[in-house]
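Protein: HIP1R protein
Species: Oxyruncus cristatus
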Amino acid sequence: QELRPKNLDIKQEELGDMVEKEMASTSEAIEDAVRRIEEMMSQARNESSGVKLEVNERILNSCTDLMKAIRLLVTTSTNLQKEIVESGRGAATTQEFYAKNSRWTEGLISASKAVGWGATQLVESADRVVLHTGKYEELIVCSHEIAASTAQLVAASKVKAEKSSRNLARLQECSRNVNEMAANVVASTKSGQEQIEEKDTMDFSGMSLIKLKKEEMETQVKVLELEKRLEGERVRLGELRKQHYILAGGCDAAAEDGEARPAPAPRRGILKKPPIAQKP
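Structure follows.
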């Protein structure tokens, strides 16, 4: 009791309520994130088409799968916490258990906040990407943050849980699922970014006649430059092959200069037909 920080005494009666409130707040944040993603999906279908619609749908679908995985993670974590409290408090009340294990409780609250915050940030980043006002890299960073906060929540829950607990096994499985879904968000984001950037470089629909003519002339110049460079490389390749033949003895350049070939006898011997084998 003497070693415990004094500032925690004020919060002892509030810690238990804070855990429940924070887990409830995290669940609400995730539910709200799922609703917002559905709204973004509907908006994307109305305002975009073609490649952009395909990319937006793939990214938002992966975000939805990630939110569902997080929601299951939070539910399983809540069940595990109840199990931990029931098995560890003995004759004490729930509030007294949280107060007695205040360090663990605060770690649990912090981890829960991190998960909820990560989910909210992911949705905001996805919204900006769909509206073309944000960066694809933001989604990737948010996915990594969610994976990290999930690991924090699992670690905080695992400290007090029994090794044979079924809820702990379910929580670890949920954590792996969250990591897998976060990786899917990263993969869909990267592939979508490549598709959009490739399409934008070939989209000339918004150019005026003058702009198109200018782009056409610049492209013709690049084509001529590349053709000239290609021709030069072909000449270089021919010279390299010629030199290769000379060094390998594939031509008679040395003989035309009057130079004697070294060891001509063995060469003629090699070209002779072998003697016909006699019957015994």
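Remarks: The mean pLDDT is 79.
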